[in-house]
Amino acid sequence: MAQEPVEAVLLGAGARVLGNFGLYAEQFPHQLRFVGVAEPVEERRVEFARRHNIPKENRFRCWSELLARPQIAPALINATMDRTHVDCTLAALDRGYHVLLEKPMAVDPGSCFKIVQAADASDRILQVCHTLRYTRFYETLKQLLQDGRVGDLVTVQHNEHVAYWHIAHSFVRGNWSNEERSAPMILSKSCHDMDLLAWLIGKKPSKVCSFGSLHHFRAERARPDIPERCTDGCPIESECAFSAIRHYLGENTDWPVSAISLDKSMEARRKALETGPYGRCVYRCDNDVVDHQNTLIEFDDGSTACFTMQGHSHDGVRTMRYSGTKATVRGHNENGEIHVHSYADGRVDRIQVDPGIGGHGGGDWRLLDRFCESVRCGNADGMVSSAQESLTGHLLCFAAEKSRRENSIVDMDAFCASVKG
Questions:
Q1: Whether residue 104 has a cis bond before it, omega within 30° of 0
Q2: DSSP 10-43
Q3: Structural domain contains residue 38
Q4: Which spans in 52-158 are helix H?
Q5: Considering only Cβ atoms within 10 Å of each terminal Cβ, which end of the chain, N or C, has fewer?
Q6: Does residue 242 lie within any of the structural domains?
């Protein structure tokens, strides 16, 4: 007997949704079916509804309209912008939906606690999209650490290298460039990494300190004759690494180009650059999030981890080194390579991990597999993390940002007590 797909409603039909959650439902119709959508941008709302055959009565301009109606599906995927998450997630849980919530949960620690508490009280599933936990690569790394291959873990170096074009697209020109509209960079981009460190290391963090700044993408970096837009006759456009013309008017029409216009024609894309945010000079934007940051974490047993996020890389990869009393484990997530260097015999085990299909190294679709199964079963036993566990990584982000802004060392026990409310 064929299983019925999990029915879900969607809040927020942005570019990531069309190429991730939406594509998953199209590829695996036996797993997930969308029956409602709320999206303020009409062309995106209409396009998502068309792809998923959503009737007009279940298309809404905003999340509050959808959640004012009686529950129309067991599940809800919340892909709204960061600062909207609290209100619509609380309303969805109250309405009776199981919720898959895009990271970050919220942009302040008190609201994160509030969401977790509401999920516990509602007896609904709340799963945060920490997709990297669901990749085969990080599952393998976790198993190596659990098996004791490194001995007692002493120190960790974890790096997120954000490609130069990616930081320009998302964090200078795009939706996550300004904290008043989104969140600090370490939360909006790197809460994946803080969550990974909390999960993989599995110890209680005790102290955090962090340093970073917006170093490069600033107005004073541009010559006085550089115009507001790359399409305004910029004298250095042809040689600029961040030229919007080069990045958005080429042959590629997939992400990130798909984010600037649903119409992928050259005419529509050029118009988007002439009128929208993605055509702006990277030195003439209203961005204020950091472009590099280093965070040091001490755990309760004295072990340490250093996390580096930097947006001046030729490629977008994560690299890591886990050093213990028996071995060192080195990893490169983009290549799927994990090397275990044993001290006693000098042996090097080389492990090659196949990422599978779907974005984020296969983690996006594996998470959706687990979420759909959890909704069918009515419990979250199949999920790798709970909302409560996701909270730890978020709190590390908030503590790191507090340290960076105040030039201080943050005691985690005192910090958590002060923000819990």
A1: yes
A2: EE---HHHHHTHHHHHHH-TTTEEEEEEE-SSHH
A3: yes
A4: 63-68, 85-95, 109-122, 136-146
A5: N
A6: yes
| 127 close to 100: Cβ distance less than 8 angstroms | yes
Sheet bearing 317-324, strands edge to edge: 348-352, 337-342, 327-332, 317-324, 153-163, 304-313, 292-299, 205-213, 410-411
Condensed to tens digits (0 to 9), the pLDDT of residues 337-392 reads 999 999 999 999 999 998 877 778 788 899 999 999 999 988 777 777 788 888 99
Nearest residue to 256 via CA among 164, 182, 129, 187: 164
Could you say which DSSP state residue 245 is in? H
Alpha-carbon distance values, 225 to 102, 136, 218 (Å): 41, 49, 15
What is the C-alpha to C-alpha distance for residues 156 and 122, in angstroms, rounded to an integer? 37
Per-residue b/e over 58-95, b at no fewer than 16 CB within 10 Å? bbbeebeebbeeeebbbbbbbbbbbbbbbebbbbbbeb
Q: What's the confidence (pLDDT) of residue 2?
A: 60
> Does 200 share its domain with 109?
no
Q: Are residues 89 and 197 in the same domain?
A: no
Q: Which domain holds residue 93?
A: 6-132
* Same domain assignment for residues 20 and 40: yes
Q: Which of 279, 309, 324 is the last residue of a domain?
A: 279
Q: Which amino acid is at 409?
A: I
Helix (H) or strand (E) holding 368: helix 363-377
In a domain, 373, yes or no: no
**Same domain as 243, residue 328:** no
Instruction: Tell me how far the alpha carbon of residue 127 is from its chain's centroid.
Output: 13
DSSP symbol at 229: B
Distance (Å, whole) CA 273 – CA 339: 44
Place of tokens 């961040």: 242
d(CA 171, CA 311) in angstroms, rounded, equals 9
pLDDT per residue over 195-230, tens digit each? 999 999 999 999 999 999 999 999 999 999 999 999
